[in-house]
Amino acid sequence: MRAMYFIVFLICLGCSSSDDPTDTTSEEMTTEEPTPTNGDTSNTTLYFPPIDSDTWETTAPELIGWNTNELEPLHTFLIDHNTKAFIILKDGKIVIEEYYNGALISDNNPWFSAGKTLTSFVTGMAQDDGLLSVDDTSSTYLGNEWTAMSPEQEQAITVRNQLTMTSGGDYTVSNTSCTDPECLLYLNAPSNYWYYHNAFYTLLQPVLHEAIPEGFDTYFDNRLKNSIGMNGAWINIGFNRIYFSTARSMARFGLLNLNEGNWDGTQLISASYFQEMTTSSQSLNPAYGYLWWLNGKDSYRLPSSTAQFSGSLIPNAPDDLIAGLGANDQKLYVVPSKKLVVIRMGDSAGMEVLGPSGFDTELWEKINAVIE
């Protein structure tokens, strides 16, 4: 744990951004008329915070018709479940922003697997730039013998398989995060089985690094991070590569995806890739896109399990919700129908599972009480 705090300390020293403010959120409140939360708000113009300033416009819950009597139960729930940062954006403006349990607005927190959505987004940017195709074989960029499979089995794995958790690797190995060749064994033909095998995802960044002339990190910083005013950095922890940032930076990325990859008039990925990324990528687990979780499907599978579950991923959340979900209950929710972005960062809420958990349902019960 001490090592983890040291990592976060280094990031706080080393990362500059408009979201590492010395001032608090702008006190200026909007005076616009309340916007219905249960109607069509498709014509509402989204607000985008400037990329070179700490300013972020706010609006009060009561001005948009939210139930302020339910705010205190929401805050209590979040505090009791080890939350550090919680943000709700409506139409791009901050409605709720709270930091609990000793956390500060400037703290950098790990996204864990919610950061997979960042890698998926960059993959789309690279494809749009003609640097690779999701249908390329992964060996084009990783070379030969990057697994312990036969040459034919290895050559059958594509970038799309890495994006969709359908690489067919043996998930019965002792460590599914291990990216060493001897850990990457054959079990199923690619595209024939869905399993949340983390190692094949982790190797997607090396694929991108080889495909992109300036390398993954420089491309990520210049094309995505700096374009929307995020802060943060990728940190290697064991076999994994974890993104750390402020909660506001996660909210910026959520807002970018609420607007289908367009930041304040600048389209960062093609509409076609965004559509592919945020819809069912295969029939094996319809609740999974390109490293994004999708609500409102008829069934779903979960990390570390081979079981198929009936029903929606988060039954009481809007059906069109898409999400980045990480260990210790890091939550990035994007809800187009309600023009919402919801961020939760912190320590484990007590579910002790990867990705989706019962905490999602409990949290949405509290959110619904406020916004409905």
Distance between the termini: 39 Å
The average pLDDT score comes to: 90
Count of runs of 4 or more consecutive helical residues = 12
> Strand content of the residues, in percent?
15-25%
Which structural class is indicated by helix and strand composition?
A: alpha+beta
Count of strand segments = 13
CATH superfamily of the largest domain: DD-peptidase/beta-lactamase superfamily
Shape: globular
Q: What characterizes the major β-sheet?
A: 6 strands, antiparallel
Q: Which descriptors would you attach to this protein?
A:
disordered N terminus; six-stranded antiparallel β-sheet; Beta-lactamase; 13 strands; alpha+beta; globular; three-stranded antiparallel β-sheet
Quick structural overview:
This protein is of the alpha+beta class. Helix content is 30%, strand content 15%. It is built from 12 helices and 13 strands.
Structural account:
- By secondary structure, the protein is of the alpha+beta class.
- Helix content is 30%, strand content 15%.
- The chain contains 12 helices and 13 strands.
- The chain is globular.
- The two termini are 39 Å apart.
Map the helices and strands.
Elements: H1 2-14, H2 71-80, E1 83-90, E2 93-99, E3 109-110, H3 116-128, H4 139-142, H5 151-155, H6 159-164, H7 198-202, H8 204-211, H9 216-228, E4 233-237, E5 240-245, H10 247-258, E6 262-263, E7 266-267, H11 271-277, E8 293-294, E9 299-300, E10 309-310, E11 322-326, E12 330-335, E13 340-346, H12 358-371
Antiparallel strand pairs: 1-2, 1-13, 3-5, 4-5, 6-7, 8-11, 9-10, 11-12, 12-13
Helix pairs in contact: 2-12, 3-8
